[in-house]
Amino acid sequence: MTVLPLEEKSKRAATGTASGTLLERQGRWRWYELAFWLVPASCYFLFPDDLVLVSQVLIAGLFALSLDLLLGYGGIVSLGHAAFFGLGAYAAGLLAANGWSEPISGLLAAGAIAGAVGFALSFIIVRVHGIALLMVTLGISLVLHELAVKAYAITGGDDGLQGIVIDPILGIFEQDLWGRTAFVYSLVVVFLCFLLARQLTVSPFGLALKGMRENSRRMLAIGAPMRRHSALIYTISAAMAGIAGALLTQTTQFVSVEVLAFQRSAEVLIMLILGGAGHLYGAFVGAAVFMVARDELAAANPEYWFFWMGLMLVFVVLFLRGGILTGLSALHRRLTRAKEASR
Q: Is the pLDDT of residue 46 over 60?
C-alpha cells in the first residue's frame, strides 16, 4: 500500500475541491439559458402557422447537438454522422410499419439501436486519428447509404418507406395537420436530451472530454482512459443522433434514403460551425440560422441560393471565428473590458 506524503494529499484535496466548485458553478442555470428555451416554447403562440418548420429546426438542433458532444467536447471529427441519424430514422419507421406504433418506446428503441451500432463502431474510431478518422466516418456513412439504396424492398429507396403509422402520444394526443402535436412532442424530447447533454458536460466526464480535446498528450500522460472516454461519448452521440432521426420519422411519418446521404452529414457540420462548437446552444443557433436562411434564400432565389449560403458561411468563418456564439462572447468580453477601462 502506497502512503502519500501529507503535502501531496493536501494538493489532491485542494484540486478535488476546486474541480467540484467549478462543476457546481457551471451546473447552475443562468437567466439567459431559461430565456433561450422560452423562445421556441413561445413559437406555439407567436408562429402557429410555422410550427412544422420550428419542429424541423428543433430536430436539426438535436442532431447538431449530438455532433457537438462528439466534436465540440470529445474532439472527434466526423464526416458521416448521418449514419446514426439515418439508422434511428429507419429503425423508427420500420418498427412503426411493422406494428410497433407506440411513439415513445419506438423512439427509445431507435436510439438504442443507433447507440449499439455506434458502440460497435467505436472500437474502430478510437484507433484512428486525423485524415484517417475523416475517411473512416465518411466510409461508414457511404456504406450504410448504399445498403439502404440496394435494399429497396425494405427501405423504399428514394420513394420512401410505406405504411408508417404513429399512435397518439401517450394514447391521447393525435398528430394534426398544423403540426401542433409534433411541435410539442419534439420540444419535450429535444429539451430532455439537452438536459442529459448538459449534465454530461458539467460532470467529471465532461471535464475529461475537454481535457482530451485541448491536450490529448497531457491527458494520456496522467493516465486518463482516453479510449474508453472516446468510445463512450461516441456511443452517446450516436444514440442521440438516432433519437433525432427517429423523431423526424415520427413527426413526418416518412423516411427515405436521403436521411443517410452525405449531404445530411455536411449540413449538420455546417450548422455546428455556424452556431459554434463546444457551447451546446450553438447547435440550436446554427440549426435555426441555417434552416431559416435556406428556406428564405431558396424562396427568393431558387437558382443561386447555394451561393448565398456559401457566402454566409465564409463570412461567419472569417469574421465570427468559432461560430456565432463564440463571436458574440468575444464581442461581449471586449465591450466589458472597454467599459471597465473607461471608468
A: yes
